[in-house]
Write a structure and sequence with these properties.
This protein is of the alpha/beta class. Helix content is 46%, strand content 11%. Helix 4 links the parallel strand 4 and strand 5 (100-103). Helix 2 (36-43) runs parallel beside helix 3 (62-72) and helix 18 (432-451) packs across helix 19. 30% of the residues are buried.
């Protein structure tokens, strides 16, 4: 990790030399300034962890400097040093926002202790700010024992000592921000801020201001300088959610930050240097967006250094009982009631649902159950209406509801196919593609023939094939029959000729 930076501002050359020597020996990165104006100009594009400044100097005095620093960097600790240790100076220092007042002459160990205390203070503030970023009710714990989630855990573990850029992809509601939080929490940057920004939630004309900040007077209403998320996340992690929704122009600016580690505030002319780890996330196919010209290819390669895929909930259904128990317990605690308990038949039923909203939908369902269900135990019929595909039927053998996939099959056939494949593999069957591919082709061919009332030329067009390809497939699949439509098609061909 980088060393803590200290600025010393004093017109006394000997004092600057002593402080620089002492702090460098303690491992600090020290920069000296003879007068405050130079430090203020430097502050536009760089910032230390702590500033020590004399109170009486030529040009801008220490209290005026302190006031200007507090306007632009309110949390930056400033220690006021002075040889004129009168009550008025001390009171003015604290009223203006000084972290501490240090009268000269002082013991060098006292100055060192104050600087260390200031660094602890700023680290604590940054940790508190990182906590505020997440919802108060949001847990940063990732739950799951499924093989798919174990892969995610392993990836987070491998990256625990890294500052490398990470791209997280997965459907909405799968927990991409939780994974980003975990990457930060288990990284060398854990003591610094975690700042999250959702590209899809911000109007396009405000994204650059949110990311990079703006200077005073940059546009109408910009009455003060504003720090963007990059500056807020300095030293820590910036999580850019729904990166696929970032405007093309902003992508260009982001690419420059990733390449150079610096940017310009909106309306600014002085570069601002930052040390930020980028974790990006999307539910979209970025490769497709690149091919369509909607996402920069060079930015895609910059972001896609390490990719973590978060599985949809339907693909980790074995985690549903554990997740539901966790969400029910948390909802009960939030509302001050005993947590609900899912009956075995209820969890069995829930494990076979598609959950298009993924973990977020499951969490909302558990909160709904906590509020709406009067009994302690939750039966399948207690579930929200949107989860009951058809009226529940009891199986005579198991007394469990027989879930219907009547509606699921229309919109989530790929999940049914996945369940079919998993079952075949569990049964020890091999070469399942040889089984599935003919079934798949038969199904689509039959659908096309039904749609065209048996007209094979038209059916081939719907399938994206030529007429000869369809004829060959019909023979290969044993679907070849009397060509009822051949005569009609022949007549149509003659008339077209």
């Amino acid at each position: 990790m980088s060393r803590n930076k200290i600025w010393v501002i004093d017109d006394d050359r000997a004092m600057r030399w002593v402080l620089e020597k002492t702090f460098k020996e303690e491992g600090f990165d020290v920069t000296n300034f003879e007068e405050a104006q130079t430090a203020l100009e430097r502050l536009h594009h760089d910032a230390p962890d702590v500033i020590l400044t004399d109170i009486r100097m030529p040009g801008i005095d220490g209290l005026t400097f302190l006031s200007k620093v507090k306007n632009s960097h309110p949390d930056l600790p400033v220690i006021i040093m002075t040889a004129h240790s009168d009550l008025e100076s001390a009171v003015s220092s604290y009223q203006t926002g000084a972290f501490e007042y240090l009268p000269k002459p002082f013991d060098i160990d006292e100055a060192l202790a104050l600087v260390n205390r200031a660094i602890l203070h700023i680290n604590k503030l940054q940790q508190q700010e990182a906590t505020k970023t997440a919802s108060p009710l949001q847990s940063t714990e990732i739950i799951g024992e499924s093989p798919a989630m174990q892969e995610v855990f392993r990836a987070i573990g491998r990256l625990s000592q890294s500052h490398i850029t990470v791209l997280i992809n997965g459907e909405s509601g799968t927990g991409k921000e939780l994974v980003a939080h975990a990457l930060h929490k288990h990284s060398p940057r854990r003591a610094k801020p975690f700042i999250a920004l959702n590209m899809a939630a911000i109007p396009k004309d405000l994204i650059e201001t949110e990311l990079f900040g703006h200077e005073k007077g940059a546009f109408t209403g910009a009455n003060t300088q504003h720090q963007g998320r990059f500056e807020q996340a300095n030293g820590g992690t910036l999580f850019l959610d729904e990166i696929g929704d970032m405007p093309f122009e902003t992508q260009t600016r982001l690419l420059r930050v990733l390449a150079d580690g610096e940017f310009y505030r909106v309306g600014g002319h002085i570069p601002v240097k930052v040390d930020v780890r980028i974790v990006a996330a999307t539910h979209q196919d970025l490769e497709k967006l690149v091919n369509e010209g909607r996402f920069r290819e060079d930015l895609y390669h910059r972001l896609n250094v390490i990719r973590i895929h978060i599985p949809k909930l339907a693909h980790r259904s074995e985690d549903i009982p554990m997740l539901a128990q966790h969400f029910l317990a948390r909802a009960g605690k939030e509302l001050g009631v005993s947590p609900k308990i899912l009956r075995t038949e209820t969890t069995d039923y829930m494990q076979q649902l598609p959950w298009p909203g993924n973990v977020r939908q499951l969490e909302n369902t558990c909160r709904w159950l906590t509020v709406m269900i009067t009994g302690r135990e939750v039966y399948p019929e207690d579930l929200p209406s949107e989860l009951k595909q058809v009226p529940l039927q009891k199986s005579s053998e198991t007394s469990q509801p027989a879930p219907s996939f009547e509606r699921i099959s229309l919109h989530h056939w790929d999940e049914l196919l996945s369940q079919w494949a998993i079952q075949k593999l569990k049964n020890g069957e091999m070469k399942i593609l040889d089984i599935a591919t003919p079934m798949f082709e038969r199904t689509l061919i039959n659908a096309a023939l039904q749609q065209t009332r048996g007209r094979k030329r038209h059916a081939a067009e719907l399938l994206g094939w030529g007429r000869n390809t369809l004829t060959r497939k019909l023979k290969e699949l044993g679907m070849d029959s009397a060509d009822d439509d051949d005569e009609d098609e022949h007549k149509a061909t003659l008339s077209e000729a």
